[in-house]
Amino acid sequence: MSSQQKPKITLKVNGKSYEADIDLHRTLLEVLRDDLDSNLTGAKYGCGHGECGACTVLIDGKAVLSCLTLALAVNGREIETIEGLAENGKLHLLQEAFNSNGAIQCGFCTPGFILTAKSLLDENPEPDEEEVREYLKGNLCRCTGYVKIIEAVLTASKG
Amino acid sequence: MKRETKTIEKTMPKLAPTVIPVAEDLKVVGKSMPKIDTLGKATGAAKYVSDLKLHGVIYGKLLRSPHAHAKIVSINTQKAENLKGVRAVITHKDAPRVLFGECGVEDAYLLPDRARFVGDEIAAVVADSEQLAEKALELIEVKYEPLPAVFSSEDALNPEAPIIPPPEVCDSNLLPGLTRSNLKEWGDVEKGFENSDHIFEATCYTRFIQHMPIEPRGCTAQWDGEKITVFVPSQRPFEYRRSIAKVLGLPENKVKLVSPLIGGSFGSKYQGRYAIIAAFLARKTGKPVRFDFTKEEDMLSKMRQTATHEVKMGLKKDGTFSAIDGRITTASGGYNWSHNSEAVLPLNGLFRCPNIKFESRSLYTNHPTTGEWRGVNNGPMTFAVGQLVDRISEELGFKNPVEFIKKNHIQTGDECSSLWEREGVLLSSCGLDECLERGAEAIGWDKKWKGWKTPVRTEGSKRIGMGVAAMTHHSGPAVFSSSAVVHLNTDGTANFLTPVMESGQGATTTQAQILAESSGVPFKDIHVVFSDTEVTPLDPRGQVGSVSAHVTGLATKLAGEDLRQQVLERFADLISVKPEALDIEEGKIYVKEDTEKSITLKELMEKSRFGLTPVIGRGSTTCPNWPQKARNFGVHFGEVEVDIETGELKVLQYVAAHDVGKAINPTIVAGQIEGAAAMGLSWALSEELIFDEDGKALNLSNQDYKIFTAVDCPKIIPIIVEPGDPLGPYGAKAFGEAPSIPVPACIANAIYNAIGIRFMELPITPEKILKALKEGKKEYPS
User: Which of B214, B215, B268, B294 would best serve as a mutation to test chain A binding (most A beta carbons within 10 A)?
Assistant: First the structure.
């Protein structure tokens, strides 16, 4: 393809289909936030190097760092972002737990944490504290000291 | 440099302490009400500055100096300007020659003609896309004349050193001023040392560190022909507005600064060139201008100084203080935007001592801008004081360090003036005893403490040790002020206009709870409008220095009481009773003696739509600072495990007990304790911004500047101590910085208990622990 061409990308995000003409080099994070005709700003730019986890989205239920994912590499795939977690206005257990126990302070890391935790609970529905900490070590938080985040994940795991 | 020396008698209490008991019948204050900002954060609906998208926006990028100190001999932007899609390029030639800055020092121009650090911003481009703007940066041709540079406070003090600040700011690298380079004495320190039976000294070193909020900074500015609007996360919206107005030559009422939800700040997001440049370019081009910083740029924007702390303490035979002398010397970067004044607090605000001297020296160096990091320079000085006090406790034969703190700490009613307050001001309340007692119990101090030079236990190559450290900090810096306005709508709901910003510390929820309590408007019916300088009332200094629960809270309480009085009077008038006969609760006004006679706020305001004055509550206040001053206090207990074969350290248990006066929202308070303590642990054990010999920062990333992750942080146990306070709203003190302050001292003391070595510099890494063990000395560095 010539550098002037803008290939078309098709993504299904939170169950809805989107199409856009994008630059070759766009990351999934950039496409979700800026290129689709949507309001999907839940995934955040925290570092651009896959080191903080704030850009986490789910692909096939697995946590993926969207700032390191070339958008065209996931052309046609189904993506789940934080905006898609609640169903018909009913919060996911994790969202409910985070929201009600003080696990959210500035909130910038929250979407990434919730989605990574969802990926954990889908794999391992009853983790212990150590397993939760280990799974979440790729998500950085500067506000909470992780105390109430761990508690929220454990609470959600108990249903 | 002319130094200020003031001498006063440091008095012991003359008045009996008068602590007003905290009201027990509170309905909203004291409860963990659901936070008003977190639902949107959990669903992704919450918008931060980078999520705001203005139509027609153009993108800005900044050109940064590769030299630590260099004159810009020439700068040619023609090629950049000619690139298709580039809207404007500006340099110092275009910038108004108006100084601005932060924390009382105005030492920056919009764009400089001389770079003061590697990464200093020297030109700006706006273009139709980020890629084009970056391409345009490469086309700017700059001829630099590198100048000699200084990278330490010692070198900066040298009379031969190049002078870094512009001559119109200061003619020396040593910047004078109350909160920069200053000298103050209480009593007579020389006599105090003469009368001492024991004298101890220590020198400690703390390094450049970064705040590392997860959200990098950014902004969007637009010009409508008359007014500038800037969306920028800032803890100091009104101060930033003032700088923008000043540099652009606009009146303050033609600058609207909105601070959206902030993704973490901790002192990093105050001001900065970028929003002023964005405003300037928005006015120049007529298009909305957006800047997004990369993580690297964000880390370069602000850091806490590298500092040397020299402390000398004189004690009498009975183990009480006779004299304390402390000096802080900081390498304060190319833009000196940080106070040194908070370093006085552990020296003269924590222990009873009749003779105290504090000296501060703040030096310009060719490093990035330095500014306030949580706790400012209190934490670094507490690292020195907390360890020295631990050593003194041992050498004077105290059973354990807790006993020393208990015997010597400041008490309610003691004189407690620091640099900010009038001499003679008395401490309003002090909860240190309860912090000591409950914290010691929580960690199991009595069971675990085996004595000096004896680890708590030994398991193979692992040594487990325990330590303690105390702290004090502002509850509202003395010169701060704030305000609040609340409108009642025709359906009885309220619009609450508050200057606080929301960076996760829960200020909006806290203020709403205070308003609900004081006004009688139900918490759920309060809509909070925050940090918009066009709409929310004035708060000149911002939410810094641990202030909003205490000072803004007082203004909010006044506004609530004002509103309450108006609605009571209105109903009293309607039913011909005296207002004193009425009360309001949860939006219902009723006659105290006959509760059936009542009206809801909704009904009352519906009636008020025709011919009655709108109900507006207002409050405006300064920080109470005479004849009493509030301070917050805390004690930390830590248990660490040091592996003497690998140098690795694990924090096994960590207890943080804090006197917060009264917890307005206990969940928020616990979260602040946990988060700030975790930040302190990360600082103590992992963090340092590293520069090479040319002044270039080497570790501008999460990978290379590691903050604690979920596996590094222990489960921190917060203990909320509520002695009440006569000055704060419902007895509350502000305390957001406090739990980060005693952590390094506490951990260092625990390490000493484990392996018998005192670490005199931060961070304390496994490499240093191993090196220290090999050297076999009592102190590291020796």
Answer: B214
